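batch_manifest entry 22 of 60
target: Disease resistance protein RGA1
source organism: Sesamum calycinum
requested by: lab member K.T.
priority: normal
notes from requester: please return tokens only, no post-processing; we will run our own comparison against the previous entry in this batch. if the run fails, retry once and flag.
--- input ---
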Amino acid sequence: MHDLMHDLAVSIMKHETCIPEHGKVMDIRKTLRHLSFDIPSIWAILDNKRKLKFPGVSLRSLICHKDEFTYDMADFSSSLLKQQNLRALHDHGNIKKLPNIVCKLEHLRYLAMSCYGIKRLPESLTRLHNLQTLKLMNSEKLLELPRGLKVMKNLYFVEIESFDSLLCTPPGLGDLTNLRELSIFIVGQDASHQIDQLKELNLGGSLSIGGLENVSNTKDVKKANLMTKNDLTSLGLLWTDGAEKTHSTEYYEELLQGLQPHHNLETIRIKSYQGFNFPNWMSALALKNLKKVSLESCRRCEHLPPLGKLPSLAHLNLDGMHSLKYLDDERYVNGEIPFPVLTTLSICDMPNLVEFRRGNSVESFACLKEIKIRQCPKLPGLPFLPTLRSLDISGSISATLLGSLRFLTSLTSLKLSHIPELAAFPEGFLQNNNALETLQIDSLPITTLSNVLDNLSALKNCEKLTPLSGPMNQTTALRYLHLILLPELKYLPESMQLFSALEGLQILGCEGLCSLPDWLGSLESLSSLFIEHCKNLSSLSDGFKTPESLTRLEINGCPELEKRCKKPKGEYWPKISHIPTIYIGGKYVQNIRR
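--- output ---
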């Protein structure tokens, strides 16, 4: 917003809006209509959370910003919730219980709340007959919605952020003809929960349909009229895992064939589908606008649909495709390029995957920038990927996979974690990866990094690792270094002085480390230093001097060092007192804003 327009809006609304600041007096006027606050600030202002009073005020909107702790809304806002003219209530806090008084706000149009501790919403919520928007955030524990939701005829938008725990959706949702967005519909066994409830709903945005194993007749799925819902941008088709025991593969294939969406669809997720083949509507002709595909736990599928021919596909996630051997086995003609705009690829739990593309060497993945590979033990290597920037590999891998990384010359970030077979890196590992800036090694059974230290950026959970050594002369571009859970690390190597661009250094769980070197002060770009749970780190070297650039120092779980850095009488306090922000032993010792 332009500054002049902002000033104009403020001048017009200043008597109707209030955003209290921490520690300042809150100006309560009778003209106040809109209040926005966070819990700590308003509690600090009021001293007693139960003394919150708004005499003569008629609020229209109330916004509580996100807070890190769980609370009971009724503890602080009983007087707020007696605001009978309230139209909008948006609570980002971690609510553990919804007060009954909320269900008496008969003029409420908009209700958004974080359901962190809520398993069931009260039936009294259905009294809010004027409610148009119901938005439930942090709803991982939510099991049930009010069964009488169908009487809320003015509902326009229902969003449930996380619905994996939801057992069912209320019956008769097809009666809510004003509904334009419904994030989840779960098919049940009785008529009021069948998929034909979606028939007359003109839904858009994001829709997931769960419990598809409860569709009694595969021909009934066409009654959902998905092809006519041209405003749908995202669709999830979800079966309950394990339902394949009660249905044949033919049932799955016929059912999915009948769930064809409108060609405007941009995102599709299919989970626990147990047919052998995907429907023919999953093609470039039917879904030319598709940008994101996620296929999960489709264990019987031996072939993917022709995803490589989708002209807009940018993100592909494959997880639990146990029978799949190739990501692509299509034929391409007339200069077609497979996966022309794909930028991110995630392949997880694929025990039989042996190759990205089968057969010919047609150039493919021309725009691929990020790959995540987890638990793909038979994948021998990666193809030439000239644009790849980020690679994350974890779980069991083949002995030859890492050797193929030398051809990924544009790689800037590499993470290797929890690979049980990897006791040593292959010869020449990373020798051609001159662009590499970040290397994170996490929970590997390795004992040395002598052949990879040239590009070291992050090091985690390698308990057998001996002290860092070796050349580091090519790490001057390094900005962040994390040394985590390295109990054998006894000192920081002097070659780290070459990290002239280093801005952040974290040392965590390095129990063998006893002292910090004096050359640490030569890291002229270092702005943040975090030292945690290094119980034997008790001293700074005699010539130790913190860099002038350092603006934040944190020391936790280092009892002796914490004692020596104590303000103001600790022997090391004079060496660190110039640092603006100092956090020691779980408390701010100094916090000077520059």
